[in-house]
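debug: dumping io for the single-chain case to check the tokenizer round-trip. Nothing else runs in this session.
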Amino acid sequence: MSISENVIAFKKQLPESVTLVAVSKTKPASDIQEAYDSGHRDFGENKVQEMESKWETLPKDIRWHMIGHVQRNKVKYMAPFVHLIHSIDSPRLLKEINKQGKKAERVIQGLLQLKIADEDSKFGLTVAEAETLLTSEAFQKYEHVKIVGLMGMATFTEDTEQISREFQQLKTAYDRWKDRYGFHTLSMGMSGDYTIALEKNTTMVRVGSAIFGERNYS
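debug: decoded output
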């Protein structure tokens, strides 16, 4: 099947309440354009400068999602256009996003990334750290960054019960804070585990290989 056929077929599996972020990292702009031509608008990248170069050449109504770990010195490159930063994992990064949002004269939307996986390689805040950040005096004063929900990545494992437990941990935190902070986005679930995330009522899934095919990292 073609990329556009994959997008259409995949969207049919999802409830209307769930947003599909087509993860286009390492893929050429022509592949993104094909998905765009099928009517899709939400695309995810994990490197800021790769996303910036694609933003410059592709249609301007694409909603770009930064799903990878973000270095603070790279925020300025995406501040003028990024739709949603999924991976806010420290108070210092949040402060920098607010600073660059002010320079770009816009409010940048973001998700706090919680560490739910049993893997050292995964980034994220603990539930306690996220709560401390959300209730901090500094956070209340930020006018150019808006936290609209949470993101998390489950452990890379065949153990579906473990993945389910980890997603439930994220969902529990989301439900607890949703009304208090006006959250509306829960980003969990990727190509290998999105069906479990759907069972936990995720509002956003990040899917790449099921749409664009396997990645070529060479």
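debug: round-trip ok. The chain has a mean pLDDT of 95.
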